[in-house]
Amino acid sequence: MAKKVIHTARIILGAIFLIFGLNGFYVFIPVPEFHPFMEILVSSGYIYFIKTAEVVGGILLLTNRLVPLALIILAADIINITIYHVLLDPRNWIIVPILWVLLFVVLYGYRNYFKSLLTLKPKINI
What we know:
Elements: H1 2-23, H2 36-44, H3 46-63, H4 67-88, H5 95-109
């Protein structure tokens, strides 16, 4: 049962980031009027780096390849999405808890791959 929940969460999280990442390149889902900060990201072209990371992370999750790497990439994006909606633009904030729940479910399933990242004093391997 737990494997099915983790697998489903991985697919949903991957689909969310793939769809909304692609929407940054080809607008097929209408977006509300941009907040001034988002206008800066769009006009500078920086948004394309963010959307590329979202698409890559989404594809990695959907194909079940390099999932721990995808989770690290998308966790950074989820943190930024959270800060954006909490501090700047509360519209569509409901996606934030959904993303966090999905992220933690998938992280839980892949927790063994992250144990080495939490080593307090790692030794250099030469």
